[in-house]
Amino acid sequence: MTRAVSDDTAVIIPAANEAERIATTVKAASALPGVDLVVVVDDGSRDRTGKVAREAGARVVRHSRNRGKAAAMESGAEAVRLLDADDTPRHLLFLDADLGDTAGSAAPLVEPVRAGEADMTVAVFATRVVLGGHGLVVRLSREGIRRATGLELAQPLNGQRCLTRAAFEAARPLAHGFGVETALTIDLVRKGFRVQQVEVEMSHRATGTDWRAQLHRAIQLRDVARALASRDPAVVQNLNKLHFNR
Hints:
The chain is α/β, with parallel strands linked by helices. It has nine helices and seven strands, in the order E-H-E-H-E-H-E-H-E-H-E-H-H-E-H-H.
């Protein structure tokens, strides 16, 4: 596959039941400078997510059942690798499916990686959405990363990240489910890769307060705790000592 010299980045979008917003996200991501490939991983959706994404111009990889975010990220990266052929590997820009038009503001995440200044960038949303939860999972992740590496991230669970192919491969296998961002940060920092936070004008749908949202946060907490337990057991063993209310 031959591509222009300036086309050095692929966007990977894990998506589950996002038919309502995926087309807008794909079109905005496709317009980013240097992006010539958008891969949507339809993670067992029960709606038209995959079909809508394909109609919007994305390459679509489908899981027959929901396998979770980490598995979707790995499937997307493998699809890009196959399309890279013998060319220089593309940088991998991971975006959430519900970003909509704001996906078009992701360019600052790519720039430090493209310039060789960072191996992974992590987004910091300039405009914070009002979340239905109380930040327990965020604080656990932030504290776990800080204790394990000394690095403190403003938004440690933010899924908007750009990585070099080398950094992504060094972090594999990815941690399960929603523990992927926490583990990704710890593993790469420990291996000497450079992680940089980048403020962006992006936003996604806020989580609610109904039982589904509460279940989602409980699963997040479990996955982050598991990721930390396998990397720094003391963090989880001393959960009751963490200052979650500060």
